[in-house]
Amino acid sequence: MVRIAIFLTILLAALVYALRKGGGPERAMALILIAMAVADQVLHQFIPPTFTSVDAGHLAIDLAAAAASVTLALTAYRFWPMLAAVLQLLPLMAHVGKAADMSVHPVAYLTMQVAASWLLPPLLVFATWRHQKRVRANGSDRSWLGSSRRSRPKIANS
Q1: Is residue 43 part of a domain?
Q2: What is the distance between the alpha carbons of residues 41 and 124, in angstroms, rounded to a whole number?
Q3: Range of 128's domain?
Q4: Which of these, 12, 14, 9, lies nearest to 121 by C-alpha position?
Q5: Per 3-state DSSP, what percentage of the chain is helix, strand, and coil (rounded to 5)?
Q6: Closest CA to 26 of 11, 39, 15, 38
Q7: What is the largest CA-CA distance in the chain?
Q8: I want to staple 18 with a disulfide (CB 3.0 to 4.6 A). Which of 8, 22, 144, 147 is the partner?
Q9: Buried b (16+ CB within 10 A) or exposed e, 69-99
Q10: Does 46 map to a domain?
């Protein structure tokens, strides 16, 4: 239980920092992580985790988070979302591994599902800090692919 409290404290700090100081991609990842945490709590209200068979509820959460993270990685003008997408894909490998070999010990299955999530809050903090550093150095920070680095061009009066 202490492990969960520590993780939630770190996650909460990362989320507050990203939502207050991050650019678009950092805020988007914060929202993905919030949605995952809320979905996990709702899931546990109705279905207790067992990890003895493929966990369909967590599989659904992990699929949605992986899809959102991959979409973020493909649209953000940042490198770190690719790392976040990989970290979101790792739990899917846990589900595939469990489906392929049902004899995987429940503790191993649980560990494979949650271990990568410990890396997401520090990654989000680092990404937000880098965003702030670029804003201080350049005055702005391009967030999305296809967006302009500068603000809108001024139209000269004729």
Answers
A1: yes
A2: 21
A3: 24-135
A4: 14
A5: 75, 0, 25
A6: 15
A7: 76
A8: 22
A9: bbebbebbbbebbebbbebbebbeebbeebe
A10: yes
Structure tokens, 83: 């790392």
For tokens 């690719």, name the residue. Answer: 82
- C-alpha distances in Å from residue 2, one per residue of 71, 107, 116: 33, 17, 18
Is the overall model pTM greater than 0.85, yes or no?
Answer: yes
As a dihedral over the C-alpha atoms of residue 146, residue 147, residue 148, residue 150, rounded to 10 degrees, the angle is: -160
pLDDT in tens, the chain (158 residues): 899 999 999 999 999 999 999 999 999 999 999 999 999 999 999 988 777 788 889 999 999 999 999 999 999 999 999 999 999 999 999 889 888 887 888 888 888 889 999 999 999 999 999 999 999 999 999 999 987 655 444 445 54
- Whether residue 130 lies inside any domain: the answer is yes
For residue 70, give both structure tokens: 């991959």
